[in-house]
Amino acid sequence: MRTGDCYNELLKGAKLSASSQLSDDRSPKDAIIHGEQIDGGNAWTAAQSDFGQYLLIDLGKKHNITAIATAGKQFTSEFVQEYRLDYGNDGQDFSNYRDRNGNIKV
Fold it and tell me: What are the F5/8 type C domain coordinates in residue numbering (predicted)?
């Protein structure tokens, strides 16, 4: 039985924005997986393929996040190979998520 915030839809109702988007059908709102395999339809894809791209998710309140799922767009080369998680309270100032030794977790 799945219980707790790990299996709740934390992104439902969240405010999503991004540094860029490839097209109208690759917008930040399309980043939500909903626990289902993406069938070639929805996916957020940045307009550029570089380290400056980001997806900003405002959950509205503090949560203890213990897992993050990512998925590429099926039948394409649109997927993330590496990401860094930053967090904050005001949408402007962010801290890097770090491991126990203080190293930025990638």
Answer: 1-106
